[in-house]
Amino acid sequence: MQKRYVRIANALLDLEPFDSERSEFYDGGIDPSALRLNNNESMMAPSPGVLSAIKNLLERESLNRFPDPRAVRLKNKIAEYCGMPAEYIGCYPGAGISLENILKTFLEPGTEMLTAGAVPADKLIAARTAGSTVVETDYDNPFSPSLEPVINNIGKRTRVLYLGNPSEYIGSFFTEAELVFLLAYAENTMIVVDESYFEFSGFTAADLVRKFPNLTIIRSLSHAFGLAAMNVSYVITDPENLVYMNRLSAGYAIDAVSQVAAEAALDDPDYMRRYVSTVNRSKDLISANLPETGYDFYISPANFFVLRVSDPESAYDYLKNNGVLVKDLSGINRLEGLIRITVGIPEQTDRLLLLLGRAAERFATGFNRSRIARLSNVEEKNSVKSGLK
Question: Which of 303, 220, 301 is nearest to 266 (CA)?
Fold first, then answer.
């Protein structure tokens, strides 16, 4: 008998299949010893207190119990870390789930979600499956986002505006003054500011939440705190927004192991700060060495930098064949010729710089070594180091 399938929702039929490049690593397609600089993960293990807390949990409690669905202890620790009342905090298993919860709360058929700059496709799935239209804003210079094209796209149907600050692909960002203008201008639109890289950038709009109920901030413990395997995130927003977001939270509980791991990581903020300082030392190494080998680059406020190369596909393969994984951005509009590379600890950065130096003749697009050697003007040298043109 011929199989008869139930009709799939129209919104899902139009979606491109999602295939994370991370799967290749776990499927055995990548050498486990490879230096994984493609996912902006922490390049060090989390605080030793995390492993200790997990062991204590497994010794004193059984895994047959459901976790606290509201993650009350974790929420209180996050509130203390953020300097915000706990009623402004919501906890979720991953930044993607945080965004999905927000979009399901505010979007419905006939509404629009606006994005500021290029964002990963998985950020748009919940909007489209909710029957909402996605409008993607583009900039002439992706490294210098402008309010004008964003504002020009805000209309009566715009219910949500999503922006990364810094952005996930290249680390571009809006200033506090620009965000204040957006919040005041689009008072009927929920402005979602993704601050997953807050600990690296040092910039936050959290102080604006009390004044603007149309602001929701997303943060993650995956990057600076080294908990990518746990995938813990949280949102900061007006308590009235959380009343409705929590109505959707039944299937979004953080598992018990991840909750205690996140609590332990937050109990040791100095460990996280030391890691951020280590990343900053690596950024200094990159700034000092890459210009000498002729590369154009941009060091983001997050934990990655963007490199312009003459042939992204070949550069990607070269680095992969030498045990270093990076993110090829060249298939994204206006990001042609770019690869994104996570900044790790100095030893890892030395390894990366050595490989890039060996291949500079093939892939570098900036000044060559002999040209750099002839530069006598200090300001001109600084301009070469400043980043992409």
Answer: 220
- Contact (Cβ atoms closer than 8 angstroms) between residue 226 and residue 44: yes
Ordered by where they begin, the domains of the chain are 23-43+275-385 (3.90.1150.10), 48-267 (3.40.640.10)
The residues near 374 (Cβ < 8 Å, ≥ 6 apart) are none
CA 389/CA 378 separation, integer angstroms: 18
Residues 6+ apart with CB under 8 A from 233: 91, 92, 93, 94, 95, 97, 98, 196, 218, 219, 220, 221, 222
Q: Please say whether the dihedral angle defined by the alpha carbons of residues 70, 73, 78 and 79, taken in this order, is positive or negative.
A: positive
pLDDT for 17 equals 66
Kindly list the distances between the CA atom of residue 96 and the CA atoms of 24, 122, 175, 231, 233, in Å, as whole numbers in the listed order. Answer: 20, 8, 24, 9, 9
In the predicted structure, residue 30 carries a pLDDT above the cut 80: no
Please give the DSSP secondary-structure letter assigned to residue 269.
H
pLDDT band at 22 (very low <50, low <70, confident <90, very high): low
Between CA 189 and CA 214 the distance in angstroms is 6
Would you say 192 and 165 are in contact if contact means Cβ atoms under 8 Å apart? no
**Average pLDDT of span 370-383:** 33
Per-residue pLDDT at 386 exceeds 60 = no
